[in-house]
Amino acid sequence: MTSSGTIPIRTLNDGLVLPQIGLGTYKLVGDEGVASIVAGIHSGYRLLDTAASYDNEGEVGRAIGESGVAREDLIITTKLPGSGHGFDECMNAFETSRAKLGIDVVDLYLIHWPNPSVDRYMDAWQAMMELKEDGLIRSIGVCNFTQEHLTRLIDETGIVPSVNQVELHPYFPQAELRAFHATHNIVTECWSPLGRGTDLLAEPAVLAAATAHGVSPAQAVLRWHTQMGLIAIPKSGMPSRQKENLDVFGFTLSEDEMTALTGLERGRLWGGDPNTHEEL
After folding, report:
1. Which of 8, 65, 75, 101 lies in disulfide reach of 107, CB 3.0 to 4.6 Å?
2. Residues recognised as catalytic
């Protein structure tokens, strides 16, 4: 095993500081889900990622209270569902999420999908800007937005999203979008960073890097993310796996190893093209 030490951070364009690895909570529900999230917090996670559509904001809220960790030491992310697009709709959806989480201020609030056929994400963004001005949200961003969606937000409001959380892993490294983010000072967060449900962790390039550094394949892939300055949001309900996923800062992949992992690119895995995939 490596020694994780202090988790590196990224500072967002509005000053909020995020650790480079957060805990995904998708499908962590019920009492078992609460216990898993508490275990993650005790393992050292301080960035917790949920969404209205995960239907577990209540469990995340319970875990916050049961963890014994001070609220101000945790960064809570949740996401606006498709049904919340529109100004008033966003205001109502936010209050519902905030009540379920049991917190006064949401640290990071994201539009979950752009849903372009509805074309109301701009109205939701205006509501989020107001909620941030009112001090109810510390930072506002988006998920699954393309360069075109991002450009429209920026051009029409002058407010640059702090984060764009997107599908990103060695099978889908998103080089062009990452470059756009860098140009506009948008931090890239990665959902499904380990390419769940695929053979990514059995790829020869991943196994070779893991073997060379005496780490697991998952650790090698997460190190690939963090060395590129990305924020990875792996999901696991197992305390041992949670700890392993955090323990990726005691080694450095070589340039050749980084290139080999990036060279695994094959494209989007689940058909989640933001121009066509919508969650209403």
Report:
1. 75
2. 54
